[in-house]
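Can't paste images in this forum, so I'm doing it all in text. The chain is below; anyone willing to post the predicted structure tokens underneath?
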Amino acid sequence: MDSMWLVLTALAFGIFLGAAFMIVLHMAERRGSNAARVVAPTIPDGIDQVLEVLESAGVVLDPSNNVLKASPGALALGLVRQQQLAHPELVELVTSVRRTGEPVAQEIGVARGPFGEATIRLRVRVARLGTRFIMLLAEDRTEAHRLDEVRRDFVANISHELKTPIASVSLLAEALDQAADEPEQVRRFAGRLTVEASRLAHITSEVIELSRLQARDALRPDVLVRVDEVVAAAVDQNRVVAAAKHVEIAVRASSKAEVYGDRALMVVAVHNLISNAIAYSNEGGRVGVGVRVHGGAVEIAVTDQGIGLESDDLERIFERFYRVDQARSRNTGGSGLGLSIVKHTVQNHGGDVRVWSQPGRGSTFMVRLPLAEVAPESTPESGGGDGAAREPAASPGAATSARKSDRGARRRTAAAEPATRVAIPDRGDPT
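Text version of the structure:
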């Protein structure tokens, strides 16, 4: 009898232990599932498709403010950097919505890019998406705010600058009429008239380009542009002028960097820098053009060994119609709009432009643009704890093949033309 009770007691104790183990195992599994959902949250169905078709910039954030999904517009505006919101103003709005649960609509100003002082005005709407996610939509309202100021300044500047060539054309036409019986004078005045007409046409062309930069549709920020191709195109446009002046253009552009923007506008900006470097270089001089990636940005440097700039001029050279030397500008056909076009183009792309110069030793202009950010892809499960999907790594074989292909391309290029180096003299301290 005693052994029977002992067996029953042991059996009951075993059943109890098994049941307790199963309960603990079930609770651990539930906790693990909850933790997995927190670490690797999934976006509700249909959100990816909605973000792809939205004209506004759209961002979806998880409970830890990690960016799960960002539209191309959000990346192009620089709202997302390294899968986080790039601006504390946006983080503050998201925190407010997460705390109160109420949607927020507000207009704020944020930096256009990580460099420079240019800002953009955004109409931002933030609201909950389900119980755990936050959706942020942003609309660029920058042009609406500065349109009146641009129109006012532009009309004042252009009316002043067009006055001189128009008056010259009028006087030359009158002189032609009075010298109708003198063929030699007619030819001389006709030549001057052609020069003034060309100058007027050049100013008009650059005015149109500057107007395009300040228009609402000036920039397609969701288009990827290869910087090396932009530099190559700009250099090719200046080779004839450089050859006529016996100026050598040395190029080093093998960065493979990409930025968001408008390729045509970027080519115009780099072309203007190279054209200025050639125009203000001495005959037989050298102009260097280089591209490198540094600190999350691509840098385009244009260096000349020309007349250089005084420190007082460095603060004004990017103003519309400003010319360092009025007499020399007339000889070179300058309108004073080239560097203004460069500045507006670079600012529209979220970058900045700097200049170093010393009189008699030349100048260096450097354009910095933020590198294109790769869009994070949402997946049901994430391998990391940051809640954002990771890009699949390229296989070692593919990487090796790419390196071999690059080396082969460089050998073919070296065989086709001699290698050149960018000569960058000491320019002093940047402004």
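DSSP finds twelve helices and 14 strands in the chain. The first strand starts at residue 57 and ends at 61.
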